[in-house]
Design goal:
This protein has a seven-stranded mixed β-sheet, sandwiched between helices. Helix content is 42%, strand content 13%. It has helices spanning 26-29, 35-44, 63-74, 87-101, 115-127, 142-150, 170-176, 199-211, 234-237, 249-252, 267-280, 286-297, 301-323, 348-359, 385-403; strands at 50-51, 110-113, 133-138, 154-159, 181-187, 215-219, 243-248, 261-264, 336-340, 361-362, 364-365, 376-380. Strand 6 (215-219), helix 9 and strand 7 form a beta-alpha-beta unit. It contains 15 helices and twelve strands. Bound molecules: pyridoxal-5'-phosphate.
């Protein structure tokens, strides 16, 4: 399943690339737009459309977070910070991974980034040369493939198998390794399937990376949004020295707009990532870093409240669809439903547009997440309970004649 340098084959996904000779570099010009964004734009043109396509919490950021940013700016935190972030935040993050993720780290192993996405970009750019191969899940969060494309790495898709709870097969991974393979990206809880690996399953994946001397980039951005009561982190199951762990404030604390994420990596790699930060963003904006610190130091029951809301919505929305005969994986975390539409001949991009036109409901087409999403739709649970349930009732009505 090796495919083009643009990662898993997304041939029918996304808008055509906008660049071309004289307009941009070939690399930048051939970056495909996300097909999630295509539905987002189309939904703007449908008045009153129910918006179940975007992956961003509908909750406001906690008030003490907002207050901390105000205070920081008033008190003079209006200057550059170190490339890797303010010391107090890095210390608090080392405490956080000890408390939540179950492994020991030093603040020197941590970098504060402009969202989890920038941590992923830094990590992959630090580890991959042009032409190197990176193993990416299929289905995947599309930004993994976009980052690989931008740094001229070759994305090679590995399947997340529906009949194995959307986990990869190590046997298949073994067959995909070549002399150019350098990195495997894993993402649990997964966007879009909501699957979580158990400690034993994750240990097998780290053992695979170790056997081949690969780096593992572990995207654990939904770590605190697990419904199983257990947070399973790669570094906790195996102290393998080639793991970069990526997290964000966006999901846990409903802080998408603040753009604060972070990564932990071995100190030598972290130092490289810190140097790379200088010409990219120099540092994350200072008041936002103090806001993130306040999120960690403030009451944590808001996290549990949001997690409980996502779980409640997942169960209610899934019940509506399952009652209508539609297959939906039960998520163990994150905030999405991965809906099976294989009873309909249309590919998921067509289907999502038709659903929007017929029922005024926007969902993300599965093809945006890789070839295995050709007959899947992703429904976001991060909208209001009312919109979600009404959207699922309309989706069931729309698919009804074929689902049943
Ligand atoms: N990783 C995954 C799997 C995601 O779904 C997202 C956001 O949707 C991110 C990372 C990064 O989010 P942010 O850049 O807002 O921290």
């Amino acid at each position: 399943m090796t495919n083009s340098s643009n990662g898993p084959d997304r041939s029918s996904a996304g808008a055509p690339a906008a660049g071309g000779p004289g307009i941009s570099s070939l690399r930048a010009g051939t970056l495909q737009a996300s097909a999630i964004r295509e539905l987002f734009d189309a939904a703007q043109r449908v008045p009153g459309a129910l918006r179940l396509e975007v992956g961003e919490p509908n909750f406001p950021s906690p008030p003490w977070v907002i207050e901390a940013a105000h205070r920081a700016a008033r008190d003079g935190a209006t200057h550059y910070t170190p490339n890797t972030g303010i010391g107090e935040l890095r210390e608090a993050l080392a405490d956080k991974v000890r408390r939540v993720n179950g492994w020991q780290a030093r603040p020197e192993e941590c970098i504060v980034t402009a969202g989890g996405v920038q941590a992923l970009h830094l990590a992959l750019a630090a580890l991959l040369d042009p032409g190197d191969e990176v193993l990416l899940p299929d289905p995947l969060w599309p930004n993994f493939a976009m980052i690989a494309h931008l740094i001229s790495a070759r994305g090679v898709g590995y399947r997340l198998h529906p009949d194995a709870g959307f986990l990869p097969s190590v046997e298949e991974l073994e067959s995909l390794v070549t002399e150019r393979t350098r990195v495997i990206v894993v993402n649990f809880p997964s966007n879009p399937t909501g699957a979580c690996a158990t400690a034993a399953q994750l240990a097998e994946l780290v053992a695979f990376a170790r056997r081949h001397g690969l780096w593992m980039v572990a995207d654990e951005c939904y770590d605190e949004l697990t419904f199983t009561g257990e947070v399973v982190s790669a570094r906790a199951v195996d102290p393998y020295e080639r793991i970069v762990s990526v997290y964000t404030f966006s999901k846990t604390y409903a802080m998408t707009g603040w753009r604060v994420g972070y990564a932990f990596a071995p100190v030598e790699t972290l130092a490289v990532m810190g140097r790379m930060q200088e010409p990219l963003v120099s540092c994350v904006n200072a008041p936002a870093q103090y806001a993130a610190l306040a999120a960690l130091q403030g009451p944590q029951d808001v996290v549990a409240e949001m997690r409980d809301a996502y779980l409640r919505r997942a169960e209610a929305a899934r019940a509506v669809l399952v009652d209508a005969g539609i297959g939906v994986h039960r998520p163990d975390g994150a905030f999405y439903l991965w809906v099976d539409t294989s009873g309909d001949a249309r590919d998921s991009l067509r289907l999502a547009h038709d659903l929007l036109a017929a029922e005024a409901v926007a969902v993300a087409p599965g093809l945006a997440f890789g070839p295995s999403g050709a007959h899947r739709l992703r429904v976001s649970l991060a909208s209001s309970d009312e919109d979600l349930l009404e959207g699922c009732r309309r989706l069931a009505r729309f698919l009804g004649p074929i689902a049943g």
